[in-house]
Each structure stands twice: as C-alpha cells, then as structure tokens.
Specification:
It is built from 15 helices and 7 strands. With 304 residues, the protein is of the alpha/beta class. The strands form 2 sheets. A 5-stranded parallel beta sheet has the order 2-3-4-1-5, sandwiched between helices.
Length: 304
C-alpha cells in the first residue's frame, strides 16, 4: 500500500522550489545574519545550514504528500566560553520560528540555579515555571552538567532532570532544548544521563577562535563603539591575544571584550594626563600602542 501511494505521488507533476522557500520563509536572512554576526566558526555554521536544509526539505515533503516526520531538534552545544553558543542559540530559535517548528521563536537562557531548588518541594515548581516561559521557543541551559551532582545525596538536580526529560519527549513539537557547556564535561554528563543522550539528536562543537579571528572580533567590537586601533596598537593587541590565550581562564570573545574595556580605561586616563586643553574626535576614538602594552599580561600577570 505504501509503495502504491509513493508511486502515485511520484507521478504528480507538482514541484517545490527549495531556494524560493529559503528566501520566502526568511531563513536565508537568518543564515546571512549568522555569517555576518559571527566571525569564524565555519563548522558550526555548516551544521546550522545543514539543519535548515533538512527542515526545509521536510516541509516540502509534507506539502507533496510524502511521509514526513518532525525531526528531533533538541541539541547540545559544546565548547569553551566565549565561542558564540548563546548567539547561535538565538539564531536557531529565530530559524525554527520562521519554519514553523516553534510558535514564538524566543530564547529562554537559564543555569542550574534557575531550575533547582534548595529544599524539598522547591525544584519542581521552579523547573515547571521555566518550562512554561520557554514553551513555543528554545530553552538554553548553560553549563547543563551542573544539574547532575551524584556526589551529593541531598541534591535536587535529578528531580529537575526528570521533569526536563519528560517535557522534552512529550512536548517536542512545542519546545526545543539546547544543553551547553565545556566539551569534556558535557561528554561525562551524557554518559551519566542516558535519557538526555537519547533525546539529543544534534551535537555541535564550537571551536576556539584563532588569534587572527580574535583580532578581527576585537576590531569589530571597537568599530561598534566608534573606536579604532592605530597600526602599532593593533599589532600589540595581536601579541596580547597570543599571551592571554596561554593563560588560565581565557574565554575567547568574552576575554577580548574585557581586554578592550580595560584598554579604553587606560586610554581615557592617558587623555587626561596628556591633554590640558580640548581634544578632538581623533584622540577620543583612537587606541594607541601604550593603551595595550600597559596590560599586565605583557609582564606575565593576568589582565583583570
């Protein structure tokens, strides 16, 4: 019977222009925005494009009468801090909304503290309230492995996990859950929680940025604030990046933003020392080599 139906469908002359659907749904705009917003991360962008293609094809199959099934869309984003996981989650929520896989397309970002209570009877209402807010969109759980603390017998994280698993299974047409965190810890978390592992279909790894990509990110951040480097300052900042990456607690783009905030502090202080009279746009908006090299990173310290 299925084969006969398929033969009948195949005889249909109706066709769907997938590229036109890409544009009409607004998905192309989301993908272009992802490319323009995020520097590097090509493996991540490829996976997002592949996911978008699959969802568009499933919609086309539905329209043409072919057997179709809503793909499991729960995801895992693994990688170091500052690699764009939250930004990609926002774009994913937007993409899923434009394709009709979630009703609202909003992102609710939480951590363990938003889900797990400190006493008996506290966890279930906290978790259910978060899930209620996230329905129709995407729930992003950062550092998800902290939900599971087997070393603490009185920990209530397991209760939150059980509620999440139930909702992920029963409401997968109305909620997409993205778990995020460090790669090694996420792997251990999935080994300890087979329920999550069986419900996560897409595992996307976010690589660290190269030094050149981080410099480009820094320039982009400055441009958004109407600042810029001198040529020597830019070279000094590239050296800063290499040194800072070798230190503990480096958080990719997040650390770059923090470094630029401190460079702007030094820049402002220098302007007051060097100028007794009026200053113009050029001086107010240009970071010089001094503003970078005064960082303690160049003498082996941590820039904080």
């Amino acid at each position: 019977m299925v084969a006969e139906n398929l033969n009948t469908i195949k005889q249909s002359k109706e066709k769907i222009d997938l590229h036109a659907q890409l544009i009409e749904t607004g998905v192309e705009h989301v993908l272009l925005e992802l490319d323009n917003t995020l520097i590097g991360l090509e493996p991540v962008k490829t996976r997002i494009r592949e996911t978008a293609a699959l969802l568009l094809v499933e919609k086309a199959r539905e329209k043409l009468g072919l057997i179709h099934e809503t793909p499991t869309l729960h995801m895992s984003f693994s990688g170091n801090p500052g690699t764009g996981k939250t930004t990609v989650a926002l774009r994913m929520a937007e993409l899923l909304h434009k394709l009709g896989y979630v009703r609202k397309g909003h992102l609710v970002s939480v951590t363990r503290d938003d889900l797990v209570g400190q006493y008996i009877g506290h966890t279930a209402p906290k978790t259910k309230e978060v899930l209620k807010k996230a329905m129709g969109g995407v729930l992003f759980i950062d550092e998800a492995y902290y939900l599971y603390r087997p070393e603490n017998e009185r920990d209530y994280g397991q209760e939150a996990i059980e509620i999440l698993l139930q909702v992920m299974e029963n409401n997968r047409d109305d909620l997409v859950v993205i778990l995020a965190g460090y790669k090694a810890r996420m792997n251990t978390f999935f080994e300890s929680n087979p329920g999550f592992r069986s419900r996560i279909a897409h595992h996307i790894e976010f690589p660290d940025y190269t030094s050149e990509e981080l410099l480009e990110i820094g320039n982009k951040m400055l441009d958004q604030l109407n600042y810029s480097f001198t040529k020597s300052a830019e070279q000094a900042f590239l050296e800063y990046i290499d040194l800072r990456k070798a230190q503990a607690h480096f958080a990719n783009a997040r650390s770059i933003r923090n470094a630029l905030d401190r460079a702007r502090l030094r820049h402002a202080n220098r302007l007051f020392k060097e100028n007794k009279g009026p200053v113009g746009v050029q001086k107010l908006s240009t970071l010089e080599e001094y503003d970078i090299r005064e960082s303690r990173v160049f003498t082996g310290g941590i820039d904080n």
